[in-house]
Amino acid sequence: MHIMEGVLPGPWWQLWLGLAFVLIAALYLLRTRSAARCSAKKSHTIFDEHILDDVAIASPLRQVSAWLKLLFCLSAIIVGVTSPLPYLPLFIAAVMIFAALFIAKVSPRLYGSLLTIPLVFAGTGAAVILFITGGGETLVDFFRIGTFHFQITTTSLELAALVLSRTLAGMCSLYFLTLTTPITSLFSVLQKMRMPQAFIDLSMLIYRYIFVFIGEAIAIHNAQIMRGGYGTWKNYLTSFSMLASMLFIRTWEKGEAIFVSMDARCYDGCMALPEEDGHVTPLSAVSVFLFIALIFGLLCAEMLLL
Questions:
Q1: 46 has pLDDT over 60
Q2: Does position 275 have pLDDT exceeding 80, yes or no?
Q3: Where do runs of H (alpha helix) occur along the chain?
Q4: What is the mean pLDDT of the chain?
Q5: Angle at which helices 197-226 and 233-264 pack, to 10 degrees?
Q6: What's the CA gap between 66 and 275, in Å, rounded?
């Protein structure tokens, strides 16, 4: 209880605990509901080449203007990462998760898989901050190694919670934009914003080759496993070095192939993009601007309370 008092004010911790319980219960119910339908549908993983575009195209929010969704998510990211307390980022993350699962109809299994990757890195960083950062009242004292004192203090606990909540808010906002807007629409918006064409073309190629890179790595790794390449520690090192070298060669060959195909299609230094066909409805516009006004108002209230 002493830890809770050091991080969460008395009148607030019941509210956030209840919100977390409701969110976990909703995720569990959605997962149990989707489990019955997963056998009849094609299973997707985060390593599928077209998974993000497939989900975005099938989203009920596909026809909402990409400009509006971009404003919605960028405002949430800016407010989330600048909030001095973890409450507002957690609120933003809860809203984004609710919107993605209930409004955009994203699969809870896919959403959980996508969210696991950044949370692992954020959790690692938060753990380092939790045990290394000093200041404030000592809550738990572990041990000391040289100049490093492993302990949990009120300052380190507050900072770790803030970093974790900011990461969660930013990633949930980014995932909502990615899972409801095709990447071509986002690039079309960037083009209308007068971004350099070289930057847009390079971003499109990088986005495309992220999944090519992952797919090639998985294919090589599976082939090595089928041949017992990771049975011993010596074989593990040999197989991993072969995977790294072959992956470089494969990606180089893929790059050469796409360069030849672009030249064959008369590439003149500018990739054609489809027009952004989303539209702004009164309900979507009012909802977005009310949410932006709410989070900026809460941010100002947090600033005044400090």
A1: no
A2: no
A3: 2-7, 10-35, 51-58, 66-82, 87-98, 108-132, 154-180, 183-192, 197-226, 233-264, 282-305
A4: 77
A5: 140
A6: 11
Residue 125 φ/ψ region, left for φ over 0, alpha for ψ in the -120 to 50 degree band, beta for the rest? alpha
Q: Quick count: other Cβ atoms within 10 Å of Cβ 29? A: 11
Q: What percent of the chain has pLDDT over 90?
A: 17
Residue whose pair of structure tokens reads 């009120």 in the numeric block: 154
Nearest partner of 122 among 91, 70, 177, 161, judged by Cα: 161
282: alpha, beta or left? (left if phi > 0; alpha if psi -120 to 50)? alpha
DSSP lists the bridge partners of residue 151 as: 141
Phi-psi region of 269 (alpha: psi -120 to 50; beta: other; left: phi over 0): left
- As a whole number of angstroms, the distance between CA 80 and CA 149 comes to 31
> CB pairs under 8 A, 24+ apart, for 45-49?
45/113, 46/110, 46/113, 46/114, 46/117, 47/211, 47/214, 47/215, 47/218, 48/211, 49/211, 49/212, 49/215
What's phi and psi for 148, nearest 5 deg?
-95, 125
Per DSSP, helices labelled H in 227-281 are 233-264
Q: In this structure, what token pair is assigned to residue 102?
A: 């209930």
Determine contact, residues 239/229, Cβ cutoff 8 Å: yes
Kindly list the distances between the CA atom of residue 236 and the CA atoms of 216, 245, 250, in Å, as whole numbers in the listed order. Answer: 18, 14, 20
Instruction: Give the Cα separation of 208 and 202 in Å (integer).
Output: 10
Q: Tell me how far the alpha carbon of residue 95 is from its chain's centroid.
A: 15
Per-residue pLDDT of 154-182, as tens digits, reads: 777 888 888 889 999 999 999 999 889 88
CB 211 within 8 A of CB 183: no
pLDDT of residue 41: 43
Which single residue is written with the structure tokens 């339908």? Answer: 37
